[in-house]
Amino acid sequence: MKQTQQFFEPLSDWLAQQPLQSLFFKMLDLCDVAGLYIVNRDQQVIHWSRGAEQLSGLKSGNVTGKPCLQEYAITEGDDHKKQLIKLIRADGQELELNKMTQALYDQQGAFSGGLGLLFSVSERLVGSTVVSEAPKSDKQAFQGLLSRSPAMQAVFQIIQNAAETEATVLVRGESGSGKELVAKAIHDLSARRNAPFLAINCAALSSSLLDSELFGHVRGAFTGAVKDHSGLFQRAHGGTLFLDEVAELPLELQAKLLRVIQERNYIPVGGDRSFDVDVRIVAATHRSLREEVKNGRFREDLMYRLRVVPIFIPPLRERREDISLLIWHFIRQHNAANFRKIEKIDPQAMRTLLDYAWPGNIRELHNVVEYAFAVGRGSTLRCSELPPEFRETRNVEPQPAQNLPSPRVDEPAAIRQALEQNSGRVSEAARSLGMSRATFWRKRKVYGV
Q1: What is the top-level taxon of the source organism (predicted)?
Q2: Domain locations in the chain?
Q3: What does the pLDDT look like over 196-249, one tens digit per residue?
Q4: 317-390 adopts what CATH topology?
Q5: Distance (Å, rounded) from C-alpha 214 to C-alpha 211?
Q6: CA nearest 310: which of 175, 446, 172?
Q7: What's the distance, CA 347 to chain centroid?
Q8: Same topology for domains 141-312 and 317-390, yes or no?
Q9: How far apart (Å, rounded) are the C-alpha atoms in residues 170 and 313?
């Protein structure tokens, strides 16, 4: 006991000089990506972090100020208690989480609530430290897709269900989010798995070349057509054809695609007879087809034919719990090449990676890991080994500015008021002022709020 007191003595002396409420809020902000939550003595939730939202599927606004579920309860004596909890989400999905709790006591020694930490079953505890392990559960690794996000688990279920049918699927997601992997998963899980899976990017070719590539052409159809050419529809017969960036398809080809879907036949370029075809179509786009229809760039009847089963892939910035999982997945892939072996990531580098917006999604994350392996040496990945954009001041994406304090307003007071009104939740406070989290954090640091 004496050794423990000596160990904490420097920390106690330092804490005595700090504004504790401000320090506590800053610690909560740093822990926002972790599955941290706090309950009071009456088992009401008074803090529910972004990480807890993502792991549990419960939004902070829906649980804060309300009694917690029994599985999340923290009672007197729950000091360093570790347990596995099993839940059923609102969508009916079963969920398993590890929970570690610490009861809290007031100055009179009475129980006043507790801190809870949730983490995935793919993580284990060594002492009081959460250590990530390689994903072993089918709930994280699914047909080449890797995620522990509840939102992605729902996507996996839709893929599984859609694969059992012949329905046309439309996958929507940002560039680099894994749309082709989703299409390939649908194919591999379907009855067509032993037939061809072919893909084409509709934005990569001119209208005439795309016409020939999709539907083929006969000899003499145009200058240079010296022999018959089999199109993708013919070569994919019995299998699946993936049409990436289908929103870029020219209007004249949209009519031909609609015919294929409706009539199950097509006519090659320059041909005079139709060919029957048995192909399942999975299309993908990063645009809203409804908006394209409104703007006259896409046929409404084709949109309805394509989006029989719509699947939306959330961007990486909306499933932060996947960032570290994917980073270590790609590190293990590159470690296998034996050029360099990364065994740990510098905390500041990991913080930088977690805070990044990842506009290029998983593809960009993979490129960043590859860059680090190329330019760095040693067993630790450091900030200096990240691409230049990670070491530069990034322009903040414009945010709605209707609530942004004017130069004449006391900005520190506005920030304090926003924090108070949002119970210390940084994301909500920043949003109420029309600021990004990064700008909000920087201003708090400048003003000492």
Answers
A1: Bacteria
A2: 31-126, 141-312, 317-390
A3: 999 999 888 888 888 888 887 676 556 666 567 778 888 889 999 999 999 999
A4: Helicase, Ruva Protein; domain 3 (1.10.8)
A5: 5
A6: 172
A7: 21
A8: no
A9: 11
